[in-house]
Amino acid sequence: MSTPNKRPRPVVIGVTGGSGSGKTTVSHAIFDQLQGHSLLMLEEDSYYRDQSEKPMAERVKTNYDHPDAFDTDLMIEQIKQLLEWKNVEIPVYDYTEHTRSDKTVLVEPKEVIIVEGILVLNDPRLRDLMDIKVFVDTDDDIRIIRRIQRDLEERGRSLQSVIDQYQSTVKPMYHQFIEPTKRYADLIVPEGGSNQVAIDLLVTKIRDIISD
């Protein structure tokens, strides 16, 4: 993976799945088991498009589960920069204003880059940058229960608003755009973070790549 006088190319791991699937839990489990290596988590949610030119009435209608909601071009550009061991300024999204804020976060390249999000396997250009592609596969009923618990406890939303959003955008977008990307995965992890066998296999493979 390296040439004389040149740093090894970082390893890129794509982790995807529907909302509430456990993909974040899987990503953090990888972190926990790869202590001693430098790791970076790159979240697709940071790359929601800037909507500052739109009125608020239009911003609140954004379908955040559709590919068009993401600035995938910028995400690809910044991953390529990280692969060249260059620092990048990751955008910060303001969910209260439904647009990108004027803040950024300075991110330094690491040995292992975990790219996590619902649509990270949707774009072939993004997939081509990944060394390992993971799909976390969890039943719809479990995912909606997890989403309800999260949105009620952490985001102060009403039960009806969560259900309405799930039925109108989250579920249909999952079956139209997210679930079909399962065919691109190198590893399918049923039930997310509770599947320790799959996580151990994944970590072993990552270690093999790093040590090459």
Folded structure, characterized:
It holds the Pfam family PRK. It catalyses: uridine + ATP = UMP + ADP + H(+); cytidine + ATP = CMP + ADP + H(+). With 212 residues, the chain is an alpha/beta fold. It has a single domain, classed as 3-Layer(aba) Sandwich (Rossmann fold), CATH 3.40.50. Helix content is 39%, strand content 20%. It is built from seven helices and seven strands. Helix 1 (23-33) packs across helix 7 (196-211) and helix 5 crosses helix 6 (159-178). The longest helix has 20 residues, at 159-178. The radius of gyration is 18 Å and the shape is globular. The N and C termini lie close together (6 Å).
Gist?
This protein is of the alpha/beta class.
CATH architecture: 3-Layer(aba) Sandwich
Number of strands: 7
Spatial strand order of the main sheet: 2-5-1-6-7
CATH superfamily: P-loop containing nucleotide triphosphate hydrolases
- Summarize the helix and strand pattern as letters: EHEHHEEEHEHHEH
Characterize the main sheet.
5 strands, parallel
- The residue fraction in helices comes out at 25-40%
**Low-pLDDT segments, ≥5 res:** none
Kindly, what is the distance between the CA atoms of the first and last residues, rounded to a whole number of angstroms?
6 Å
Estimated radius of gyration: 18 Å
The CATH topology, please? Rossmann fold
Organism: Ligilactobacillus equi DPC 6820
InterPro entries: P-loop_NTPase, PRK/URK, Uridine_kinase, Uridine_kinase-like
Keywords: ATP-binding, Cytoplasm, Kinase, Nucleotide-binding, Transferase
Pathway: Pyrimidine metabolism; CTP biosynthesis via salvage pathway; CTP from cytidine: step 1/3; Pyrimidine metabolism; UMP biosynthesis via salvage pathway; UMP from uridine: step 1/1
